[in-house]
Design goal:
By secondary structure, the chain is mainly alpha-helical. The chain contains 17 helices and twelve strands.
Length: 505
């Protein structure tokens, strides 16, 4: 765990008199036995596993740029603040008080309160208490807006709440509708997993949402993660997908700025937006229809698109809507609504009766109906595949699946090579035959370096180098005057240390 620079453990003892002399912490002591096991370990030992260090030492370099490393001091401060906030949330969940939180953080034996004590040492005890009270206010608000999940019933209740909130939240612009499709895919993953915690890779999400990987990444970075819909707890590695947690979307109102680059909004912020006021009202769509239809080629970007998808979802949950009502329920502009409705009418999926629009009887299956007062448009057996062929988007999902399959295969080959430490082999000729000779790994000792009895020869002088020896597996080990253990002894000590670490965490 990273430590604060310039703060040895002896400073804790120097701070102890100021704590005992302070009259600020007068509430009864909150015992660690009253807290969950994870909270007690976090207070006593700090962030042993580095869970709260992720993202503390880097910051975003801007859209499309690599993360920029923070200075060590800022990274340590950010890490310490995250640990302090996590402890405050644990205390708030069990009904504690800010004075009890201060008592836990300012205790010299509690590693989790190192950041609060560092603030007290640098800025004074009163400022440390003010800092703790600010953290407590934020933690109390976060805890009051959430609830603990104790059973599968609570998990399904939370998923239903998130789905209902997503269905009534406006998603304006192409970027908002793309984010809705990605969120619908994650809702399906979470329901299959039985709770808000689920696993999904980027390719898996792209295939479920009928989008490209770049569109999925943009939805994560610009809408879903900043507005609290999704939280990535762990990045995927190897054959495991990323670990995601569904949020309640506390800041999930999609800003109208998501369409600043389209013709619906002026480029100047001071001119405000051109969208009609009804577009900013409460939306109402059927997210399960979105989940069911979005993988089809007909709703790819080259086909009907996301605007037609949300209009179909809005008409399915509330039939017979006017264009003005569709603008509010589906969060599309008037021009986009008319353009999408004309396309849907041409395929017999939407029927027009005066100023009212409604879905054909079997439009969800991609089967066109009959227009009122006109001849039937095509065959009633028309499905989404036929619609995709008419739109010119047939085969998009198949090509996407094939591309992802190639990428997965190439990635698995790279993982196998890394696991086996493969390197290009050298080809030599012996007795008229070509023989492949594997090259040594970087940590293996070449044959010309080996000396008698496991010693190592200096290749420049040919003499024995007393600081190095050859281990039993053919690797180099450094022998220092302070440590004369053999490789087997070092391996045994490593196993003991690893067991102690796993037991403590």
């Amino acid at each position: 765990m990273p430590q604060h620079q310039g703060m040895p453990h002896s400073l804790h003892d120097a701070f102890q008199p100021s704590i005992s002399q302070s009259k600020a912490v007068t509430a009864p002591h909150l015992g660690l036995s009253q807290l969950p096991r994870a909270a007690a370990d976090l207070i006593l030992y700090g962030d042993l596993t580095g869970r709260y260090a992720i993202g503390s030492y880097t910051t975003s370099g801007g859209p499309g740029k690599a993360p920029v490393a923070r200075t060590e001091q800022r990274g340590v401060a950010e890490h310490g603040h995250r640990v302090t906030a996590a402890i405050a949330c644990h205390v708030a969940r069990v009904g504690g008080t800010p004075d009890q939180l201060a008592g836990l953080l300012l205790h010299t034996d509690h590693e989790g309160g190192r950041h609060a004590r560092y603030v007290a040492l640098r800025s004074g005890h009163s400022r440390a208490l003010n800092y703790i009270h600010r953290v407590w206010a934020s933690a109390s608000q976060a805890v009051s807006n959430s609830f603990a999940i104790h059973s599968r019933f609570d998990s399904h209740g939370l998923l239903a709440t998130v789905r209902s909130r997503a269905e009534t939240t406006p998603w304006p612009g192409e970027r908002g509708r793309t984010a809705l499709r990605v969120l619908a895919a994650h809702l399906d993953f979470a329901e299959a997993a039985g709770g808000p915690l689920h696993f999904a890779s980027e390719r898996q999400t792209a295939e479920a949402a009928g989008l490209s990987r770049s569109a999925v990444r943009a939805a994560y970075a610009t809408v879903l993660r900043p507005y609290g819909w999704l939280r990535r707890l762990r990045a995927g590695h190897g054959r495991e997908g990323s670990t995601w947690y569904l949020g309640g979307g506390a800041h999930s109102q999609v800003s109208a700025e998501s369409c600043l680059q389209t013709t619906q909004f002026p480029p100047d912020r001071e001119l405000e937006e051109w969208a009609p006021p009804e577009m900013r009202q409460r939306a109402e769509i059927d997210s399960r229809v979105v989940s069911r239809l979005m993988p089809h080629d007909a709703f790819a970007r080259e086909g009907l698109g996301s605007s037609a998808l949300v209009i179909v979802a809005a008409l399915n949950i509330q039939p017979a809507q006017t264009v003005g009502e569709l603008i509010a329920t589906s969060s599309v502009s008037r021009a986009t609504a008319y353009r999408s409705l004309r396309t849907l009418v041409s395929y017999g999926l939407v029927l027009h009766d005066g100023e009212v629009w409604h879905l054909a009887p079997r439009a969800i299956e991609g089967l066109g109906g009959e227009k009122p007062g006109r001849e039937a448009l095509g065959s009633c057996s028309r499905g989404w595949d036929v619609v995709a062929e008419g739109c010119g988007s047939a085969g998009v999902s198949a090509r996407r699946h094939a591309l992802h399959a190639k990428e997965r295969a190439a990635y698995l080959r790279v993982l196998e090579h890394l696991a086996e430490r493969r390197t290009p082999a050298a080809v030599v000729e012996r007795d008229g035959h070509l023989v492949l000779v594997p090259r040594p790994a970087p940590d293996e000792v070449p044959p010309n370096w080996r000396g008698p009895a496991g010693t190592v020869l200096d290749p420049s002088t040919g003499r024995i180098d007393t600081q190095w020896r050859v281990a039993t597996d053919g690797r180099l080990i450094l022998i220092t005057p302070a440590d004369q253990r053999t490789y087997d002894e070092l391996a045994a000590a490593h196993a003991v240390a690893l067991t102690e670490w796993e037991t403590a965490s």
